[in-house]
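Sharing a chain and its predicted structure for anyone who wants a worked example. Both blocks are below, sequence first, tokens second.
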Amino acid sequence: MDDNWEKRLAEAWASIDTYGEDGAARFRALIDGLVAELPDGDPVGAFEQACAWDSTGHSDRAVPLYREALAGGLDAYRRRRALIQLASSLRNTGGAEEGVALLTPELDAPSDELDDAVRAVLALCLSRLGRDREGLSLVLGALAPHLPRYQRSMARYAHLLVAEPDQV
């Protein structure tokens, strides 16, 4: 895998919306062709194939590939993406509780551009489990820093949604 391969992969992903609903198999074939250029067993290949299945509406096919990619070892960025996307796929396939377990430790992980995605997917998993207040708290907390005003207020409201009564 080199910069040229990564560039071609990015171009493939940028083209996904041009395939339309009936082009899902052709898009997956494009990704499969790129993956075929990688060494056998490369976890990036399993990750990209999982993403392709997931992005074309087949979370059930994506879950085992995300697991394979994570077990094989990914760089920190792809690993975090895989956890987010696995949790989302698990939520779609009845495994929201496992999704919560996967993403909760990520709240304390080193910060990066995926922080808000972690919180958004974790909120969806929590909501699927009937824990809407916790999910809303996460979403408001993620949104607050992006607001032009009211950051402190929204951050406080997010905290109050899940605070113990004696903390209010």
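Comments welcome. The domain at 3-99 is CATH 1.25.40.10 (Serine Threonine Protein Phosphatase 5, Tetratricopeptide repeat).
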